[in-house]
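> forwarded from #structure-qc
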């Protein structure tokens, strides 16, 4: 489930236990909508992650190491100015909703203690983080919202902070059974009525409460003792709610599908993995999902650029192939010019067509020749010789251009394939830098201010069934380095005639089974991964060469053998 108010209340309990009284030692902003606060408390360093991501808004402690931009964003600089060295006084929740407030005590420039507040709103695409002064005035926010963006409220530096529009729902921690019973009514689904009446409940949490209080996730209010039901619900949602025993819910493939503060009966059919704390459960659920989403967002611009260039190349290739086909008519033009030149006496000006014996044909069958009525017979002959010269030149040039366009198209398709393999930002930046060097992307010095100091990316590392290490390149830079750093007698593999990864089997004389397993990986990490039998070439690395001036990732090879294998993602 998303970070609803119910889950947030458990997170806030945990953060109050862990961080209150701690000192803010460091602040970073690895993403435009994500903050990391390093807090030292009771001799231990903890890192608080606050994310206003539209798809993964959340707050929890984290152990993940994140790389920050070379130049911190303005909001990060303001956070450092106002909060570094400050003490954490407490975490609070607004009326059970998805709004958290973190209170700080900080020394100002005059040496006086002043209050600062960080307001975190976890509301999907409206999520935001705002830094407030002691008087509630906004210092700045992750997302600035002007009147042009929202007519409901503005979030801008210098304006007083306004709470999100009130929905008139009950606070689960203070509501009474009588108040809840009056809101629930006497008809309809318990879960839907509960969600409409109580603040901060996601549909999943409301269904779980309906199951625990009424015996069914789809229970109806008709015929129920609504006051007794409300008493049970108040017990589940109020101050004496169930103890925190966080669970990561996974499907049959081991993929995280939910995270809950205690085992949900409505999720009992799925695998429930107990977690040590709420933060660990949140990180396990959101971490990989948020990372993949950010990689997808950051790769979208490169994807569209590659797609546009691939479309351009395909269109250009079609025109060049058409020119090549037209060039095949050059012999026809030459023959017609020769026949006209040899039979000028038999042609009169003003004729639209003439039939002449074709002495280039063994049977000398008559050949019909179209004429321009405005030209003399000799001029018509010269016209055909000019068409012949033009067609011959077009054929030669088109042949050269077709080869260049096919090479460029293969390169771009390979980059598109590489883009789909990116799992780290470093890999995206390497692809972007390569495209910049080749002129597909204009270098933007201003954009480089936000670039992170990322370590070089590394190839994928797997083990064959006998323990042999297999390395798989994920972009052209990795492919070149992987291939030419390998020993001469190590086996090199690549999908035949299609874009794909360079694969190296580490060590000499691998078994046939290991080669077959590596070939399956080479097939999967190629454009042919959806096929049932993919041709994969393999040879010794010593027979792999890079032509002078070739694009990154392009090689030629000899002494190869070919296997036809089923693509496999893992050994």
């Amino acid at each position: 489930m998303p970070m609803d108010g119910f889950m947030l209340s458990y997170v806030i309990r945990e953060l109050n236990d862990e961080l209150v009284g701690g000192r803010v030692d460091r602040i970073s902003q690895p993403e435009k909508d994500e903050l990391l606060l390093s807090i030292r408390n009771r001799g231990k360093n903890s890192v608080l992650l606050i994310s206003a991501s539209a798809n993964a808004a959340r707050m929890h402690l984290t152990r993940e190491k994140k790389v920050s931009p070379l130049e911190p964003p303005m909001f990060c600089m303001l956070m450092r100015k106002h909060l570094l060295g400050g003490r954490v006084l407490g975490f609070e929740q607004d009326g059970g909703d998805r709004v958290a407030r973190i209170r700080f005590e900080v020394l100002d420039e005059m040496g006086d203690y002043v209050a600062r507040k960080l307001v975190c709103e976890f509301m999907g695409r409206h999520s935001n983080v705002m830094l407030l002064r002691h008087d509630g005035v906004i210092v700045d926010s992750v997302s600035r919202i002007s009147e042009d963006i929202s007519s409901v409220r503005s979030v801008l530096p210098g304006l007083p902070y306004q709470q999100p529009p009130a929905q008139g729902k009950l606070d689960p921690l203070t509501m009474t059974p009588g108040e809840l019973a009056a809101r629930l009514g006497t008809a309809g689904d318990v879960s839907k009525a509960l969600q409409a009446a109580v603040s901060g409940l996601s549909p999943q949490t409301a269904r779980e409460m309906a199951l625990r209080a009424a015996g069914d996730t789809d229970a109806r209010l008709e015929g129920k003792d609504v006051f007794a039901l409300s008493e049970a619900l108040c017990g589940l949602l109020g101050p004496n709610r169930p103890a925190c025993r966080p669970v990561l819910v996974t499907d049959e493939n081991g993929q995280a599908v939910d995270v809950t503060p205690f085992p949900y009966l409505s999720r009992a059919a799925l695998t429930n993995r107990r977690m040590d704390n709420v933060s660990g459960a949140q990180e396990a659920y959101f971490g990989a999902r948020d990372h993949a989403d950010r990689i997808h967002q950051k790769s979208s611009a490169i994807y569209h650029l590659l797609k546009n260039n691939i479309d351009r190349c395909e269109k250009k290739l079609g025109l060049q192939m058409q020119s090549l086909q037209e060039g095949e008519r050059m012999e026809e033009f030459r023959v017609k010019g020769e026949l006209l030149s040899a039979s000028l006496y038999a042609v009169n000006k003003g004729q639209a067509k003439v039939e002449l014996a074709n002495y280039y044909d063994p049977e000398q069958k008559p050949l019909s020749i179209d004429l321009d009525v405005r030209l003399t017979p000799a001029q018509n002959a010269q016209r055909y010789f000019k068409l012949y010269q033009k067609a011959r030149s077009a054929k030669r040039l088109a042949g050269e251009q077709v080869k260049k366009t096919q090479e460029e198209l293969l390169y771009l398709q390979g980059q598109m394939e590489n883009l789909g393999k990116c799992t780290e930002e470093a890999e995206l930046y390497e692809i972007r830098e390569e495209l910049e060097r080749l002129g597909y992307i204009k270098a933007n010095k201003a954009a480089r201010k936000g670039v992170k100091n990322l370590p070089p990316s590394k190839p994928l590392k797997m083990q064959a069934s006998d323990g042999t290490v297999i390395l798989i390149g994920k972009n052209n830079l990795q492919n070149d380095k992987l291939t030419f750093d390998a020993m001469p007698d190590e086996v090199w593999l690549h999908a035949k005639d299609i874009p794909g990864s360079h694969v190296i089997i580490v060590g000499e004389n691998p078994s046939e089974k290991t080669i077959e397993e590596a070939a399956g990986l080479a097939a999967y990490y190629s454009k042919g991964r959806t096929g049932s039998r993919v041709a994969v070439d393999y040879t010794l690395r010593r027979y792999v060469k890079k032509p002078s001036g070739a694009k990154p990732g392009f090689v030629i090879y000899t002494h190869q053998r070919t296997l036809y294998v089923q693509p496999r993602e893992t050994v």
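QC bot note: The two ends are 33 Å apart (CA to CA). The chain is about 35% helix and 20% strand.
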